[in-house]
């Protein structure tokens, strides 16, 4: 037997490798550097790694290639999403690294192994212990997220899915305050995530049984020549979709979202809400547009129903929430429905609309959650909506920024959310899915109601007597919020530059 | 030569009679073990049943001409993973048990109906579309292990390498969740013994009593009787108590001496 060495074009996968390498350096720092110096090294190291990765992505921006023995496809959509994930990863890391907000340290528990409420926990908190392992964990998650939308076969996709999920399961359980809630969130996320991964794997086996390969190109060709057994194909599509729809939190696979978003430390929630959605929808688009495009008449009805259910139920549930993190979680469910509208369009406008939506949604979400970390009372973040009453009178700037993000989430003109929604809805209309557009516009109206209700609460009600206060925004959180607000505004007023970039990039390689 | 070939029942790509016999004996046992794994109460039993399921699967893999997968299944799953399960059970303690209270009413019934429906759907779909074996001979042309190695180090080398990130994450995560640094010094033997003899201490100054040693019975599962005839619960291992394996001491206890009875009798 001849062994031919595999060919990997390292320049094309270098961004992923840089992030992975930085994560490994972070692990070594954890192992060998004295405890009180770790934070000072981890934060610049992680951010530098991400910046270098982003610079390299810019350098290879025109690449369209399949590499690593056709396991990885580096093309326009992959690079756009990788770039977005890296930038949002920096914003997320800034929030994770923030130590000025909580009087006893950062947002993470002093010692995860200490039982909540125990003497050990108290002494660990008093000793000001911190867990700087969150930095390499975040970087591992980012690397997985960068690989996910670039994965060109089902095996690589599955591995990327696990690489991005495992650190998130862990970090969800590390909240400093309300630890039992956080641990419950982590356990739920882990069990349900493992379950959905099993579905994905089972579906991948069926698709392999259908086409004799896990590569997207081979699956595509098998569908075009009608080579295999249709039952295997349909079962495979259904099961693989379950795994991916879970990650993007589409109804009926959304039930983990509110609990995990609420229980996880808010910086982790911000990071995960933005970046997981981008990565998962990127993978979703590649699988359905490249691998399964020939079977689109089979999966479009299914995804249409799921998109409608996700939009309607997500918006309705969000209406009834009294906790701002849960409300944003259900709003994220509704947004999954809107983004699915772009996927279901199955045309070029749909793809570029989806990409644009993902990028803008990521910035808006991180910004909104970053502001949630600022509104605090004695026991930590005040996440009950009543705490936001009169915020506009106490700290007008913060209230105005939160309003900006909420208006962008609602899709009001002059914010990036409007351009994004317009892009996916017009693409869906172009492809003939008028029903989707009607439902999309109606649910956008419902969704606008609960966003604007919060804005009204902030500006037209008197603050509670002993209500929460807004922390004077410290440097790193301010930087993250400023980045997100600028992008949200600029893309709302002058979306053209990014729209052109994404339009030019919206072509999958196979 | 031809005769031998014709008599050989092991034509690749077809189920031979021995394989069928093996399957019909082991498969029901595997399913039985898998189902009872969910229903048994004790975690150790669950783990052992799972080990059995995995061994059965390994035998199937070997019977289906995938020797490498079969051996790996035994070495990695039955060997390493199962032992880890048992280690964890040992660390957590057999006396800790999960609450089986349903927080959502009727959840178990609904889950069972859902699972049954899903199983029927899948079995129906697979059963309808089964067409026979394909590709086994091609896959094993150069030998099973060689074929796998070839794939692993060429076609799937990227996925194979990226899995290392997963393993590092898992190790790091286990450290984060499990590693506890002592914030205070561990008490020395001297300090401990001073503590035991201090007035008001709940710990006895002397070592704990041994479990029962009697003329009638000599075992670790009977509590010792104190000089006044009462059993001492501290003499039996906590674990045995949790398992419910401690014998009743009634039979060995001294009768209380009734008033007026002659003690010298």
UniProtKB/TrEMBL annotation, chain A:
The keyword Heme does not apply. One of its GO terms (molecular function) is NADH dehydrogenase (ubiquinone) activity. InterPro entries: NADH-Q_OxRdtase_suN/2 (IPR010096), ND/Mrp_TM (IPR001750). GO terms for cellular component: membrane. Residues 151-446 form the NADH:quinone oxidoreductase/Mrp antiporter transmembrane domain. GO terms for biological process: ATP synthesis coupled electron transport. The chain crosses the membrane at residues 12-33, 45-66, 78-97, 134-151, 187-211, 231-256, 268-289, 301-320, 327-349, 355-375, 396-415, 435-460, 472-494. It is a multi-pass membrane protein. It holds the Pfam family Proton_antipo_M. Keywords: Membrane, Transmembrane, Transmembrane helix. NCBIfam families: NDH_I_N, PRK05777.1-4. This is Unannotated protein. It comes from freshwater metagenome.
From TrEMBL, chain B:
The keyword Membrane applies. Keywords: Membrane, Transmembrane, Transmembrane helix. It holds the Pfam family Oxidored_q3. InterPro entries: NADH_UbQ/plastoQ_OxRdtase_su6 (IPR001457), Nuo/plastoQ_OxRdtase_6_NuoJ (IPR042106). This is Unannotated protein. GO terms for molecular function: NADH dehydrogenase (ubiquinone) activity. It comes from freshwater metagenome. The chain crosses the membrane at residues 20-40, 47-63, 69-92, 113-136, 156-177. Gene3D superfamilies: NADH-ubiquinone/plastoquinone oxidoreductase chain 6, subunit NuoJ.
């Amino acid at each position: 037997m001849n062994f031919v060495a595999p060919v990997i074009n390292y320049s094309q996968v270098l961004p992923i490798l840089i992030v992975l390498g930085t994560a490994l350096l972070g692990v070594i720092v954890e192992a060998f550097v004295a405890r009180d110096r770790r934070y000072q090294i981890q934060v610049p190291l992680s951010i530098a790694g991400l910046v270098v990765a982003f610079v390299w992505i810019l350098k290879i921006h025109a690449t369209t290639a399949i590499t690593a023995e056709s396991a990885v496809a580096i093309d326009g959509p992959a690079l756009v999403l990788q770039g977005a994930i890296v930038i949002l990863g920096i914003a997320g890391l800034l929030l994770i690294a923030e130590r000025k907000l909580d009087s006893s340290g950062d947002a993470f528990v002093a010692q995860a192994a200490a039982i909540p409420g125990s003497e050990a926990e108290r002494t660990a908190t008093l000793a000001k212990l911190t867990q700087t392992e969150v930095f390499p964990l975040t970087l591992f998650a980012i690397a997985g997220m960068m690989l996910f939308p670039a994965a060109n076969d089902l095996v690589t996709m599955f591995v990327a899915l696990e690489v991005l999920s495992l650190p998130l399961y862990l970090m969800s359980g590390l909240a400093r305050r309300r630890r039992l809630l956080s641990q419950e969130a982590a356990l739920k996320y882990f069990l349900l995530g493992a379950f959905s991964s099993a579905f994905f794997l089972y579906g991948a086996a069926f698709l392999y049984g259908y086409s004799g390969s896990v590569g997207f190109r081979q699956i595509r060709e098998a569908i075009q020549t009608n080579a295999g057994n249709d039952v295997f194909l349909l079962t495979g599509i259904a099961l693989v979709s379950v795994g991916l729809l879970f990650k993007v939190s589409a109804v009926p696979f959304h039930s983990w979202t509110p609990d995990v978003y609420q229980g996880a430390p808010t910086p982790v929630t911000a990071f995960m809400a933005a970046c997981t959605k981008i990565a998962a929808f990127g993978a979703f688009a590649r699988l359905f547009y490249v691998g399964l495009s020939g079977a689109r008449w089979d999966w479009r009805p299914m995804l249409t129903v799921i998109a409608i259910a996700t939009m309607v139920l997500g918006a309705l549930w969000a209406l009834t929430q009294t906790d701002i993190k849960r409300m944003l979680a259900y709003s994220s469910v509704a947004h999954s429905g809107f983004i699915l509208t772009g996927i279901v369009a199955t045309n070029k406008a749909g793809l570029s609309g989806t990409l644009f939506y993902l990028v803008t949604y990521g910035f808006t979400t991180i910004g909104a959650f970053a502001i949630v970390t600022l509104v605090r009372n004695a026991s930590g973040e005040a996440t009950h909506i009543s705490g936001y009453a009169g915020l506009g009178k106490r700290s007008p700037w913060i209230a105005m920024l939160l309003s900006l993000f909420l208006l962008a989430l609602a899709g009001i003109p002059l914010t990036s959310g409007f351009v994004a929604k317009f892009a996916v809805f017009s693409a869906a209309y172009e492809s003939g899915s008028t029903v989707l557009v009607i439902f999309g516009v109606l649910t956008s109206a419902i969704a606008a109601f609960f966003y604007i209700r919060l804005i009204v609460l902030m500006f037209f009600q008197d603050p509670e007597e002993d209500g929460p206060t807004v922390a004077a925004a410290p440097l790193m959180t301010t930087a993250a919020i400023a980045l997100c607000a600028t992008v949200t505004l600029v893309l709302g007023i002058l979306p053209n530059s990014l729209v052109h970039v994404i339009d030019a990039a919206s072509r999958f390689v196979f | 030569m031809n005769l031998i070939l014709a008599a050989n029942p092991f034509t690749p790509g077809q189920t031979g009679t021995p394989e069928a016999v093996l399957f019909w004996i082991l498969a029901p046992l595997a399913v039985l073990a898998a189902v009872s794994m969910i229903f048994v109460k004790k975690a150790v039993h669950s783990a052992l049943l799972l080990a059995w399921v995995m061994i059965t699967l390994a035998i199937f893999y070997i019977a289906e001409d995938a020797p490498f997968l079969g051996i790996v299944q035994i070495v990695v799953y039955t060997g390493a993973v199962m032992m880890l399960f048992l280690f964890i059970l040992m660390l957590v303690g057999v006396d800790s048990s999960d609450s089986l209270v349903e927080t959502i009413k009727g959840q178990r019934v609904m889950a069972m109906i859902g699972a049954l429906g899903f199983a029927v759907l899948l079995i129906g779909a697979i059963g309808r579309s089964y067409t026979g074996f394909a590709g086994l001979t091609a896959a094993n042309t150069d030998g099973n292990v060689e074929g796998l190695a070839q794939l692993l180090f060429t076609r799937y080398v990227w996925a194979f390498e990226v899995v290392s990130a997963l393993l590092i994450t898992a190790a790091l995560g286990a450290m984060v969740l499990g590693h506890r640094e002592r914030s205070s010094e561990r008490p020395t033997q001297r300090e401990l013994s001073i503590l035991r003899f201090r007035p008001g201490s709940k710990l006895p100054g002397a070592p704990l009593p041994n479990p029962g040693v009697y003329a009638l019975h000599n075992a670790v599962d009977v509590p010792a009787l104190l000089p006044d005839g009462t059993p001492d619960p501290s003499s039996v291992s906590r674990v045995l108590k949790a398992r419910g394996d401690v014998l009743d001491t009634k039979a060995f206890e001294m009768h209380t001496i009734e008033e007026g009875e002659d003690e010298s009798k």
